[in-house]
Amino acid sequence: MIGIVDYNMGNLASVINAFHKVGANATLESDPARLSRYNRLILPGVGAFGDAMEHLRENGMDEAVKAFAASGKPLLGICLGMQLLFESSEEFGEHNGLGLIPGKVVAFDEKRFDHPLKVPHMGWNELFRQHIGTTPHGCPLFAGLPDAFYLYFVHSYHAVCDDQYAIGKTFYGYEFVSAVQNENVYGIQPHPEKSHKNGLKIIENFIRL
Length: 209
What we know:
alpha/beta, 23% helix, globular
């Protein structure tokens, strides 16, 4: 059973449709008491970090997501959902996250760009797989994909963390972390549900974890 956390901060229809396209059923779940019944969990998100954490805390969904992660079952954060996995964000002030992956979320530093670029980072860009730690063949989330492949991005903030958690990086003005893993907790900055074949492959791989 695949659950999608429903906390009024995401384009949930496109996520559900992506699972249907690969022949899997996913259920929207807004009751934190029922998260434990799922075998896999998706944490989506579109919007501001602080608002998202407030929505999660309103009914205890934040603690339920942490408990799910502690159970050892696969958890995948998408876009803002990935950012929420970190300890904090500087988006519109300082906000605490779920703390499931060490690191923080920061704004793109346009002073580091080698030429003027628009922020938000929006459109197709490459994710470069990082072969780290105990996964010499790369993260199983990217099984069957090349070392570099295109996905669809929309974001103004990005994660900063140690390389031991980085399973994917992307270049936009400078290199930043675009996919992460901490044991059974995964996160991906681009939108797999909007990334055609490559995105659907990631969703299939998540189902098979």
